[in-house]
C-alpha cells in the first residue's frame, strides 16, 4: 500500500503532464467507446424479436439487382400453401402524415400492415387485440406516441384524425419498436386497407411490399426454397422470373439489414478506426510519460536512497498507470452520460441506446 500512496501523491501534484495524460486517455477512450457502441448497435439489428431464428425476409435477386419488395398476395399465399410456414406478413412502411387529436396536429410515422403482422414480427402488443387491424378506420399506437397524444388518459376507443379528414379509432397499443430494426421506424400501425386504393394488391405487378415469414419449429428453410418453383407456376410467375433471371432468397431477419448494404464492411472499418484511436491515445500517454522522465529521475533517486527497490519503483509506475486509466474511464463515462442526447442526435441512435 506504500507504493499506492506514493503514486497518489505524485498524481496529485500538477507536474509530469498528469492532466494532459488524463485528458488524452479520456478523450481517446470516449471516442473509441462510442465507435464500438455504434458498431455493436448496427450489428445487432432485429435481435430483439422472439423466435428470430425462425423469421425470414423474402428477397429476389434478378438482372436489376436485389429487391425486398414483393407482390401483395405473396405473403398470404405462402402461409396458405406451404405447410412449413407458420405465418407470413407483408407491410408498407415509411408514411409520414399529420395525425390530429382534438384539432391539434402531431407528426405521425406509420406502417400499413395485415392482421398477421404480430404473428411474425412480435415486438409486443400491450393493449388490444393484435387481429383488430382491419378495415380502413382503425389504428394502433406505440406506447410513447399514445402518451404524447393522450397523456394519462386511456387511449383505447378514442378517435384521432389522419390528415385531419379520416377519423380513426384507437384499437391497440404496442411497445415501441427499437430503432435498430429492419422492419421500419414508426409510431403507429394502420390496416393495409387504408392504403389499398393507392397500391395494386393483386398478382402480376405492384412489387411494393416487404414480406416476412415465420417457419414452423424444426423446419429447414431449404424445404421452403424447394417449393418456390411450383409456387411460381401456380401463380403465373414462372415466365416473369425466367425473363428477369430472378430467384428467391430467404434471408434470416437478423441479416436482413446487411443484405444489400455494406454494413459489415463499415463495421470492420469503424472497429479498426476505434482501435487506432486507442493506440494513438496510448502512444500519446507513453510519449508524455517519457518526456517527464527527467523530472521523475530525481524522484526515483530519492526513493532509492530511502531504500526502495527496483520492484517498488516499478510498482509505483504501474499504480500510476492503473489510477490514470481508471480516472480516464470514469471521465469517459461521465462525458458520454452528460452529453448522451447530443451524441445520440449526432450518431443517429437513441440516447442511451
Short description:
Helix content is 43%, strand content 22%. The protein has 353 residues and is an alpha+beta fold.
Map the helices and strands.
Layout: H1 2-11, H2 18-43, E1 55-62, E2 65-67, E3 69-70, H3 74-81, E4 85-101, E5 104-113, H4 117-120, E6 125-128, E7 138-142, H5 143-150, E8 159-162, E9 166-174, E10 188-191, E11 209-215, H6 221-225, H7 228-234, H8 238-243, E12 247-252, H9 263-291, H10 293-305, H11 310-338, H12 340-347
Parallel strand pairs: 5-10, 7-9
Antiparallel strand pairs: 1-2, 1-11, 1-12, 3-11, 4-5, 4-8, 4-11, 6-9, 7-10, 8-9
**E-strand count:** 12
Q: How many distinct folded domains?
A: 2
Structural class: alpha+beta
From the N-terminal CA to the C-terminal CA, the straight-line distance is: 40 Å
Shape: globular
- In spatial order, strands of the major sheet run 4-5-10-7-9-8
Into which percentage range does the β-strand content fall?
Answer: 15-25%
> What Rg is obtained from the alpha carbons, in whole angstroms?
29 Å
Largest sheet: 6 strands, mixed, barrel
pLDDT averaged residue by residue: 86
